[in-house]
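Posting this for the archive.
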Amino acid sequence: MPLLKRKAFEKSTASEYLRDDDEVFHCEITDEIFKDYEEYCERIILVNSMVWTCEMTGKNNLTYAEALESEKAARRSLKDFPMELRIPILFLAAKTKRSSFAEMSEDVFNFVRERYFVGETVEACFEGDIWREAHVLSVTAQKQHPDSKVMIPATSYCYEVEQFDESDPSAVGQIGTAPYDRVRRRKGIFSRDKNRLFLKQFVQQTPIGVIAIKKPTLEKYNINKVSFDQIFTGEPPEFPSSKKLIKNSLSPPASRNQVKPNSANKLNKSGKKVSPDKKGRQESMDKFVKKTDKNEVKPKPPIDPAAKKSAQELAEKMRRAEDQMRQRKEEEKAKKKEKTARLQAYLKEWQKVKDDLELEDHKIIPKGTPVDIEGIPQKHFGDFLSVLEFVFVYGDILKVKDVFHNDLDLETFRKALTIEEQAGTFSDLVQMFLTTIFSLQEDEAEEYNENKGILESTEVKEEDAEMGMNKAVELATKASKWSQTYLGTPLSKLPLDATTVSEVLRLHLLSSGAAPGGRCATWRYHQRGGYSSSDDAGLNLRRRRPALLRRLAAAHVAGLRLDDKLQILQCLMNQILSYATVRDIIEEKLEELRNTKQALRMLTANERKREAQLIATRQELKKEAAAKKEEQKLTGEKAKAVDEELRLAIEKLNKESEVKKQEYEKRSKELQVALFDYTSYIGSDRGFRRYWVNQRVAGLFVEAGDEPRGGCGRKPAPPAPPRTSGDPLAYVAQLLRTERERAGSDKENDSGPNSRGASPKKPLANVNGLNKTNGLETNTQQLRELLVCTGDITTCLVHGTGEHRPQWWVYHTAEQIEALIESLNKRGYRESELRQTLELDKNNILHNIVKCPLHLLNPAAAPVAAGGGAGAGAVRRGARGARGAAPLVADGCSLEESLELSLRDHILELEEKIFHGCLGVLKVKDREAWRGTIMVRGYDKQAEYLRWGPRAQYRDDYHLPNGVLRLPQDVDQSDVDIPVNKYRDPGHYLEAPRTNGVKGDRGPTSVVRSLASALLQVEQALHHKYIKRPLGLDDKERKEREAKNKPLDLEALERWEVSLMECQSFAQIVLHLFTLDSSITWSASILNASCRLCRRKADPDNMLLCDGCNKGHHLYCLKPKLVSGPTRKKVPEGDWFCEQCKPKERTPRKRRKLFSEEELEEALDDRYDASSSSSTSSLSAVCGTCGSGGRLAAACGDCGARYHRECARPAPPARAARRWRCAACLAPAREHSVRRCAAAAITNIHQYTRALDSRRNSSADSEDSEYNTALVKLKGRRSRGSKEHSPLQNGSAKRGRRPKSDGNTSTGRKSKASLTNGVDEERTSGRKRSTRHEEPEDEQPHTERLQQLLRDVMKHRDCWPFYEPVSTEDVPDYLDVIEQPMDFTTIKSKLDGGEYSTDEELLSDAALVLANCYTYNKDTHPVAKAGCRLEKYINKRCAELQLPPLADMDGERDGARDTEPQPHKRAASSEAEAPRPKRPKHK
């Protein structure tokens, strides 16, 4: 029950006279019922007031609820209080004499906590570390002198306990004796709080003020009947009494106030109360006075007053002397105590870990070997080392083995940085980094899948203020789209080699930090740790060092300064580390590191357990052997046998343990080596020098960085005297004395300037071992040697700057590592951690530094051994050999000259491949002269000016780079409309700052401009149909544009031309060249032809190209072989098709029609007239029935018509002498009408079908039939008036074909009776035709007939060369040969516009089309053949439509013939005629 103001609380009782309907108030906390509301409120206020006290714990200032909860908690804690301790504790409490419960509780607790009583349950350990539950049976103590009253310490007791096996409760316990330190109580079973709570409920205060046990408790536990021997051993303890009780006991009772006569107490007649602090002096005086009383046997006479006075004076002197002696002892004791306390405080403060520069007992740190690599300054060695380490650690991501087969070692990397080599190691290293970055970008792009459009690069408005982050991100976003816009290729897909790496790197740095899309930004934020564009290392490099990118725009990356190269590598390294893939790898490695550490901890813990179990097992074996001998009472030989068995068992156990220990050591060493592989930073020393371990370059490296370290301290920490003894306390006392002497010396110096020299103390210089003559300088030098602050920034090696920072050293021997560990201070923040790390990884570090390449790090310090020089040379040669066949820049030739020569070779090679591959021809007067000037490092464009860009609106004589417009003096810009070139390089905003208001000239050199113009001419010589993506159009897009009648302009190629003419370096031109090279359809080049049968490119002279699929075939691989020779089959002339492309021979199916006899007779009459005017030879005549040639066996005697024997009706006689008449001559004359007889109609239809078949097989134009002409491709030809090959009509020609001889194609070109191409056009009119009765026609044009004629002609298969106007861009010399061009589209336009007044005018233009064809093309050319076939068809349709025929073309053809010999069929390696691309139309 809680106490109210430390008194018992009585609850209010309810009235017995309450009725059921009475209104009462219930207090839930105290469970009381009140009838009066005011009493209820008072009780509520009381229970919530902090006036209650916990009865169990004595806590006060609690509320009722808090006191009640405190009592419950106390009772819960006492539930597990051991019963065995209750009687001993109550017994001991009854022996105390305290007036305070706290003192009584503390006395009992101090005695009980280190002693164990009989019957108590404890934990005991007999052997090893196995603790088991046991019961105390008895207690024994060391022997003590009987008269000694000193309490025996707890450590002097031994306990006989009975130990039980917890796994087998039924087993008999083991009895043994355990010392004090092998017995303990269970944790938490007995504590100070529990002891106090237990006693609190059984004690009370007696009237005399003593805290005693309550009588009911004494009676309940029979405390008065318990003896101390029953619960412990020896005499019961005597506890001290409270001071209050001692004071009360010293006051004498009333009977003692009576003073006996002649007593010494008469001296105290004054009756003053003796103060407690003078108790000792009073007692000593009483003894002194009592001595005189003992000698007094008889009563003496009264003492003389003088004697009495002298006695009093003597007593007073003795008291004063005693006081002085005691006071002196107390002072000496206080001084000693103060000194000890001061020493202890100084020792405690001295032992604390402090900042290294505040310590005074430093040792000199041994210096390592300075790093001195040829060509690598000290300030760049850190970056140099970090690149090597990065390439070594992330070699799998970088795919180092694909670039450096022997890895990137120190010497190879040094040469890469110091030697300007175009295709050297540094170029390969940058390419490797860029390739890795692009690969990581593609991997991430697959996650968020965002497409980037194009954006033209224009001038950025200049701002005076420094560029902000948002502006930098905006410019990077524009630069990121430059490659797709002007090269048609994403930046990651650009060709990357030693010549383009500089420009690709520049574009990458310019586009770094571009603003991502929404999905990309979200993905980066989650997967790359909150990464944003402002975090990009390339963006920060561009803002921090814009001059680097300016230099990169005009020079090769290998020609940059050393610091620029390292800055670029560091930037690329930081970018690689920011990608999610690399972050995942780093996290995996960290997880492996954590797992390795955990495995090492578990391994160590298991080893400790195993060792403990091993000890326990040995003890068990020994106990078993002892028990066996005791039970069997073995002696002599049998006992020796048991001992021998025990020895063998222990040896076997030791062997097994040794094997397991070796396994543990091996596994532990492996884990430690694995942990060491993750270690790079070791720590730092007092001078803030950092210690590194590099996995690629062995050795312990020390870096004194050039980072700011703040100012020097106000007062330098003076060096301490050397340590002479190993006792730290004596050394600290020496330090304390030195400090006090130094402080005293400073006081003297401060008190007066003339007071020096009289002090006997040693000066500080003597203490530090310095000379007197030059004390200050020597002290500063010593501080510098100790690497601590000197207090002067000019002389301080820690905070000062100078030649000593930055600097690198390397430790490469075991002696250096040992000396370093010994010199590090254990009390410094930095050096203590560094020393601990070095000691833990000492073995691994020693193993690592064995491979230290000291001959490369510092050749001067490397030991010269036999063959050492050869070894070094071998290393260097190996490094060079590892590079491969990359040549160095020739002597006397700079890197820029090398790049220029390489670019010229690329341009010439590209032009040669285009020309010999028949893909285009330069538009110059003399190609060889053009190439020759480039070869001799010159340039002659052989033109007044060049045009480029959209609609060829820019000229090289007007438009200069960077938007500069240069016009002739006689031309005013306002008078002419000259477009302004708004294109700007993506890095133009990085121009150098203005000097005196003038912007630095950063334009391209004349050589760069000339080579860009040369490449432009090569591009414009290329046929556009051979340009594919990225600069051209693919087949699908080309067809879509043609279907929608959209122009086939190549916008990407036009933008490419604009950016080409703005190039400022050779690398930029090479990048444009490679982009153009990748956009050319090289598969269409004859240089790439390979045999379709044997799949080899060998022997191109004997290779034949198919006119259908353009695939190559060796002449000797065909079956039969097509090898020229007198006895072998010759190479076919004209078009040749392979087996896959060869047209199938089949009869074309036509729609059946009804014929009249008159129409059939007219057709036969026409054939007869044609046959009579042609050759009389039977092979050249045609059949009068089927209209085809062949052997004509029958001839009509009346009309002269000739027939095949199977076509003749009636059948001719067997003898030729007999006169035979045909069916037309035998038939009686009758009126012509449409046949109504089905049998006769069928007969005539069959006759007409046979005529069609016969004509198809024997026509003079059979080789140019419908199916052959469908596969005819254009071939090269020589233009008139030019030595070079010129392109053919409309850019659809094939290359490498030998034309057929004229044969029969030159004859019968105007034969109107023959059917054209084996197809009879459907007649549109059914009226009767008669050659005798023709009505005269008027001179007005027959518009409907002419339109029908044009529709049929323009749908004809051979009209494709004449459909549209000939482009002068496709055929530059066309207008030089043809004075009046014409085409059928123009004719149709004129007809629709009503420009023709007669039919002859239209047909005259049609004849002009064909005449131009015969004039410009040779007879053997496919275009000329197509014109010949089209001429026949036009004459045929004119006859059918009753239009006048075309004019005679024989004169034009014959006059247009060229006397040049016909070209032979070319092989794949011969010089090919270049087909022309399609250009804008010229009418």
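The mean pLDDT is 74. DSSP finds 48 helices and 25 strands in the chain.
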